Amino acid sequence: MYNKSDIELKVAEFLLQIKAIKLQPNNPFTWASGWKSPIYCDNRITLSHPQVRTFIRQKLAQLIQEEFGSVDVIAGVATAGIPQGVLVAQELGLPFIYVRSKAKEHGTGSLIEGEVVEGQRVVVIEDLISTGKSSLQAVDALRKAGLSVAGLAAIFTYGFEQADENFAAAKCRFQTLSSYGALIDYAAEHSIIAKSEMELLSKWRLNPAEWGQGQALTSES
């Protein structure tokens, strides 16, 4: 039986343990978008840790079977979703394809790599969901190629409302192994972050675009 809450916390534990996720509420990171963030997530690091890599592979495969049923092919999203997708496809004994960030500028000009069979039912694999924009570009490419997208599965989501709205608008279901909420719950319970930092972490997800812009980031007076 797939116990979502237990898996969410275990994945959060692993990601913090191997420093795939770093929390710095009072010394925030700057994302490529320019957003200030108290969290930085790089799930590529999971690939260097066999125990974590195996757990994530198995649980993503289980999630797909539980949530999406029978599928014909697994598709990874370039670049970080490619290795995760390969692992999941191997676990399920399914073909694998991947979607490039942009079409080749030479040769066939392909946007999708691998054998694409029109009408196949596909689940898309990502490592991380923020706004969902790049993930949904891949979903759109697969649909235009004639595949039926059952949904998308990822390791982690920040839980932004914008992502929920974007996926709903695209009529694409998505599921993740863990989430920002589960991560904060685990970090607080195990004293990984101070109580004084909890308010900062909570406020960030409510308004990530403006959080930390022109204001003091400490929650203490």
Automatic annotation (TrEMBL):
5-phospho-alpha-D-ribose 1-diphosphate binds at R100, K104, H106, E126, D127, L128, I129, S130, T131, G132, K133, S134. Orotate binds at S130. Pathway: Pyrimidine metabolism; UMP biosynthesis via de novo pathway; UMP from orotate: step 1/2. One of its GO terms (biological process) is 'de novo' UMP biosynthetic process. Residues 49-169 form the Phosphoribosyltransferase domain. Its cofactor is Mg(2+). One of its GO terms (molecular function) is orotate phosphoribosyltransferase activity. Gene3D superfamilies: 3.40.50.2020. Its EC number is 2.4.2.10. Keywords: Glycosyltransferase, Magnesium, Pyrimidine biosynthesis, Transferase. It catalyses: orotidine 5'-phosphate + diphosphate = orotate + 5-phospho-alpha-D-ribose 1-diphosphate. Catalyzes the transfer of a ribosyl phosphate group from 5-phosphoribose 1-diphosphate to orotate, leading to the formation of orotidine monophosphate (OMP). Belongs to the purine/pyrimidine phosphoribosyltransferase family. PyrE subfamily. HAMAP family: PyrE. PANTHER family: OROTATE PHOSPHORIBOSYLTRANSFERASE, URIDINE 5'-MONOPHOSPHATE SYNTHASE. Homodimer. This is Orotate phosphoribosyltransferase. The gene is pyrE.
